[in-house]
Amino acid sequence: MKHHATDAHTLAAAYALGALDDGERRAFDAHLQACEACGQEAAEFEATAARLAAAVSQPPPAAAKAQVMEAIDGVRQLPPRVPAPAAVPALGDMLRRRAVPLALAASVAAAALGGVAVWQAQNGQGLKQQARRAQQQLDTVSAVLAAPDARTVHAKAANGALTTVVSSDRQNRAVFTVAGLPAPGAGRTYQLWLDHDGTMRPAGLIDHDGTVVLSGNPADAGAVGLTLEPVGGSPRPTTDPLLLMALPA
User: Fold this and answer.
1) Which of 143, 213, 206, 218 is nearest to 175 (CA)?
2) pLDDT per residue as tens digits for the range 20-40
3) pTM of this prediction?
4) Whole-number Å distance between alpha carbons of 129 and 184
């Protein structure tokens, strides 16, 4: 089956996350030489995936390394896996629908659930619930990132924090990621807002670097705002916005 040249434009996310095989990657490298838009999109996907993975990651407990090293002697090594020969698919074939969401989900889940799994085994029911909440957030984040209509915007807040919003009308969701966010101070927190024709509606709280799924309906919102508010949040902004990031139409 033949593919139009425009098929290559759909593979920026898979390229950024290493989901293309060697032949497809070489073909996409050649495509990048003539397509500045795909180069920028691939770079944005790399930055967004890295921020999301770092934001939801959990460090393993101090005793984990010693326990793993002690257990190695009692674990039988598996024989090497020899992959069966397979035909290399044409550039764009199947990856447009399958590889991108799988790669995006893996890039975030690998960082988040690796530490959570170790903690869960040692700390009981409380961390099982934490792991379930983390998994639910990862599922939502992955669905937004993998949506065919996903749109990404970047901005810098007035306090120097670097922010990214990925939104999808089809999923009716938006994901907010921030890095370099200063501590809000005692009795304060950062609050997110969705701007609906000049009316600011609460969209969630965040008090440190990380990723949150915005609450509310982003489909008809024109911008995402960030303000510093009292702990617990406010029904309407009480301070000047540190950020008012326009969402793409």
Assistant:
1) 213
2) 778 888 888 888 888 887 777
3) 0.55
4) 27
Residue 231 sits at the vertex; the CA angle it makes with 236 and 212, to the nearest 5 degrees, is 80
The closest of 207, 138, 140 to 174, measured between CA atoms, is 140
Give ∠ CA 127-131-132 in degrees, rounded to 5.
Answer: 120
DSSP notation for 197-235 = TTEEEEEEEE-SSEEEEPPS--TT--EEEEEEEETT--S
| CB of 151 closer than 8 Å to CB of 162 | no
Tell me the β-bridge partners of 191. Answer: 205, 227
**Angle (nearest 5°) at CA 56 between 52 and 61:** 140
Hey, what are 42's tokens?
A: 């691939």
pLDDT digits (tens, 9 = 90+) for 195-245: 999 999 999 999 888 888 999 888 889 999 999 999 999 999 999 999 999
What DSSP state is assigned to residue 97? Answer: T
Give the residue extent of every domain in the chain. Answer: 5-77+89-146, 151-246
Which residues, including other chains, have CB under 8 Å from residue 216's CB and lie 6 or more apart? 194, 201, 202, 203
Q: Return the biggest CA–CA distance within the chain.
A: 64
Q: Which residues contact 179 (CB under 8 A, 6 or more apart)?
A: 51, 54, 55, 161, 162, 163, 209
